[in-house]
Design brief:
This protein is mainly β and about 260 residues long. The chain has one domain. The chain has four helices and 14 strands. Strands 1, 2, 3, 4, 5, 6, 7, 8, 9, 10, 11, 12, 13 and 14 form a 14-stranded antiparallel β-sheet that branches. Strand 2 and strand 3 form a beta hairpin. Helix 1 packs across helix 3. The radius of gyration is 18 Å and the shape is globular.
């Protein structure tokens, strides 16, 4: 008989997918000066939790200087996948002005056989419509999407990191993220050089609204991003490390 994991582990699987989409994204090579402002980046990450292989994440970004599209898939794998099947597929697109400005987001999550599809349509300033199938169950702490000014969906947030940037600009930023029901904020500090030669940026994931009251009392989630220098002057993400409170989650780039 298949053994279902504890509730904290099931919640962790969902958090893994969301965090991976929003954080685990590589900085691509800078385009030559004479080339058209186009980019296409694909990357895959192996995810380990507590030293055990737990999942895989793939991310792809395409842009033409005016518009962008990004897609990602996160699945459980290894020993974790043998006991618990979970998958999260998402797509987003929008305009570049010059940073990503989302227009549409769609995600399908299947966690242990519990499937849900979420779609977000964005207006000029904030989400204008959210659809969920099956519908979200009403909660006393739910928030109004229409007043979430300036938010990004998880994949558009990832696109801000995927896009080419000088090494000095790879990290310092603050991103407000809305997944259809909850609002969170990710902040990243400036890179520091490690003894290994890699650049490390420290960050924090803060719950802002739409979470259960007891989750709002939980500490912020600390994480770090490790980058490698590239000959082009850009940086390539190699590793994401997240302190989950139950152990370290590490996403290591495979290709």
């Amino acid at each position: 008989m298949t053994r279902r994991p504890s509730i904290p582990v099931r919640r962790h699987a969902a958090a893994l997918a969301a965090a991976a989409l929003a954080i685990a994204a590589p900085a691509p090579r800078a385009a030559p000066a004479a080339a058209a402002p186009e980019a296409s980046v694909a990357a895959r990450f192996d995810v380990h939790f507590g030293g055990i292989r737990a999942g895989e994440v793939s991310v792809m970004l395409s842009e033409d200087g005016r518009r962008y599209s990004v897609a990602s898939r996160a699945v459980t794998a290894g020993i974790v996948g043998a006991f618990y099947d979970a998958a999260y597929d998402a797509q987003a697109q929008g305009a570049l002005a010059p940073a990503p400005k989302p227009e549409a987001f769609r995600a399908v999550g299947d966690f242990g056989g519990k499937r849900q599809q979420v779609e977000i349509a964005f207006g000029p300033l904030a989400p204008r419509e959210v659809k969920a199938d099956p519908p979200f169950k009403p909660k006393p702490y739910e928030i109004d999407p229409a007043v979430q000014i300036g938010v990004l969906d998880p994949l558009s947030a990832a696109a801000t990191v995927l896009r080419p940037a000088p090494i000095a600009n790879i990290c310092p930023r603050s991103l407000d993220i809305f997944d259809g029901r909850r609002r969170a904020q990710i902040t990243l500090g400036p890179p520091t050089r490690r003894d290994s030669g890699e650049l490390r940026c420290h960050g924090r994931f803060k719950r802002v609204a739409g979470y259960r009251p007891k989750d709002m009392k939980s500490p912020d989630i600390a994480f770090s991003l490790d980058f490698e220098d590239q000959p082009t002057g850009a940086a390539r993400l190699r590793r994401v490390t997240v302190d989950t409170g139950w152990g370290l989650l590490v996403a290591l780039r495979r290709d």
